[in-house]
Amino acid sequence: MRDVTAFQQRHQVGEGTYGSVFVYSDKVTGEIVALKRINTKAEENGFPLTAIREMKILKALNHENIVRLKEVVTSKDSGDIPKDVFMVFEYLEYDLTGIIQTKEIKIRADHIKSWSHQLLKGVQYMHINKIVHRDLKASNLLINRRGELKIADWGLARSWNPEMNRLTNRVVTLWYRPPELLLGCMKYSTKIDMWSVGCIIAEMFLREGLLKGNNESHQLDLIFGMMGHPSTADWPNIHTMCPLWKNYEPSNGNESLPRKLRDEVKTRLPTVAMPWMTPHALDMIDNMLVHNPDKRWSAAQALTAEWFFDIPMVKPASQLNMQF
Ligand code: ADP
């Protein structure tokens, strides 16, 4: 294992939940990299589990739309005992939240289509490999000057199989969290990531978060307000799957709750605020924001959406104008 002194520190870029991220350059090759320092001191139980998971999963994944973990290095005290551990990543200049929030940056239809396609390819690859990310959001999508989008921050990711039935539902940042998790489901699937993808793609059009809840019940209200209430006709196993659903059922003293059913697609999203939105784009987003995870589109299905075959056709990253 190489030592961190193989790199020259340049500046800090981000503060993560379990460490800080710095830009370094490789002293031999001059390559610019991002080093994430794992904060072991703040951890009572030694090396943080999230970091171990992130390293294990990233070592197994190899895809152009997933941030590459190049190596792991340590720093040493005067002795030989490792003091700090750093994950060395390829460096990407932007994150999607920064791009969305910088009004001077003109995001056009071809950016949105290409980044959506790249995101879906990365998600399809991880789901084929039975990994669920569990924290997809605009700020965890990194973009480089070549227009390539890569999924980052794998601290909440885990391997998944359909038999798992006691998974924690306290995952996924609130605005991107699907209804099954908000309703207490512990036997969920890779489809939780697809709800987040639907929110992220809508956010690129809207240039702000789609469902910006303040707490879990507010988030559900926003979902029900926009997408309608789930029904047992649409989601037959909602009772067994979601322990908290009983609190929202009309038969449980909630008769007075205004029941809103799923509206027609085009009335649901605030399309006036989305200059590049087309009926096919809307149709794809709509199929990801489906309450019942079994009916929600997978990444493989979304990649065949008509929108990607409409003119302008989806462009490779190399053809995007990144002169912001
Ligand atoms: P945490 O898991 O601790 O939240 P992240 O992996 O999300 O940490 O990293 C925190 C921040 O550091 C990110 O939001 C991003 O701004 C920056 N960052 C992380 N990885 C890279 C990278 N490979 N290139 C450039 N910036 C990065």
Automatic annotation (TrEMBL):
Record-listed E.C. numbers: 2.7.11.22
GO molecular function, one term: cyclin-dependent protein serine/threonine kinase activity
Binding site residues for ATP: K36
Annotated Protein kinase domain residues: 7-308
Origin: domain of life: Eukaryota
Family: Belongs to the protein kinase superfamily. CMGC Ser/Thr protein kinase family. CDC2/CDKX subfamily.
Official protein name in the record: Cyclin-dependent kinase 2 homolog
